[in-house]
Amino acid sequence: MPANLPPANHPPERLDAFMARANAIYYATQDPFADFTTAPEISQMFGEILGLWAAVTWQLLGAPTPVSLAEAGPGRGTLMADALRAVRRTAPDFAAALRVHLIETSPRLKAAQAAQVPGAAWHDDLATLPAQPTILLANEFLDALPIRQFVRRGSRWTERFVAAGQWVEQPVEPGLAPSLVPQGRAAAEGDIVELNESARRFVATFSQRAALNPAVALLLDYGPERSAAGDSLQALARKRPTDPLRAAGSADLTAHVDFADLTGVARDRGAAVQGPVPQGEFLTALGLFRRAERLARDHPGDDLAAPVAAARRLADPDAMGHLFKAMAIASPGCPPLPGFPPP
Ligand code: SAH
To answer: For residues 20 and 28, is the Cβ–Cβ distance under 8 A?
Structure first.
């Protein structure tokens, strides 16, 4: 048994507490990129395109100065480094107006980010970002936040806990706010529904900030367009699925992002939502394949097929193009943003 799992006599731990603890250990002690690959690590085009997206978005917000270019869960800092390179080359006004703010809790990853993005400011969460216009990027951040899972049993719901590497179900605590209990959703016996309260809080906080200052968050993550029942908790170690309970702390634990649920949270706080659109459509609309072909042409010594193959991996529906989605949360009245179909 991995040393970080609670001992057998440990009281059952609610899934979100278990997942938060396991991922905190994981991100502080392991190299996540040995276990999974993310879009910015597949190709520099991903960060470059998002940098140009941010520059256009800044113009659409009225070019506010100063502006925060923020990222939540920046991993190795690759996305932000690629974005800044593209911004400096093509949007010097934006480059001059922005200051980079990174939201990261892992000391190990902060050190990696500092090497890639010198001069950034670090934060543990949204609360300490300056109260000023903000453009925030987050790729595969929300999927790492801890979820709760409820199981339909008869006409009631139980909640899943973890004890000594096994699932345990307990009655839903009395007085749990009705909005938390997924009563409204059609559910059959044994169905599992998930609730990501941390993601909800993140979106609610961002939406509240967006009411006070022009702000846009671009969230890229994996999950279905519509909320659906099902257990989406997954653990990856060395790029292979493994048992989320046994491998806790030594594997990356993630769950699908419920974009419909988060849309409701943002709108309840008065923010505007654009998307979600499948990542493939989003990146293709922003010129991913034109960029790949240009890269291939401009670097004839390199493997010609590599940029195009990377673009396909990011955008093809049977690779990352469909399950991954892009969604924007913006200040009320924000004009249509690049990559999103007009409302
Ligand atoms: N965006 C990067 C990394 C994704 S991995 C990429 O696309 O490659 C998830 C990232 O979120 C890691 O940087 C991890 O340390 C960070 N993270 C996870 N939980 C967090 C939390 N609660 N607060 C801040 N950062 C968190």
So the answer is: no
What's the rounded Cα separation, in Å, for the pair 272 and 334?
7
Give the number of the atom of ligand 1 that is nearest the alpha carbon of residue 106.
Answer: 15
Could you tell me if the CB of 70 is within 6 A of ligand 1? Answer: no
Nearest protein Cα to ligand 1, atom 24? 104
Q: Which residue among 106, 145, 203, 283 is best mutated to probe the pocket of ligand 1, counting the most ligand atoms within 8 A of its Cβ?
A: 106
Residue-wise pLDDT tens digits, 291-315: 999 988 887 666 767 899 999 999 9
For residue 256 the two structure tokens come to 């699908």
**CATH number of the domain to which 108 belongs:** 3.40.50.150
**Position 246 in a domain:** no
Ligand 1 atom with minimal separation from the 143 CA: 9
Do the domain assignments include residue 121?
Answer: yes
Please tell me whether the overall predicted TM-score, pTM, comes out greater than 0.85 for this model.
Answer: yes
CA distance 53 to 81: 15
Is there a domain that residue 15 lies in? no
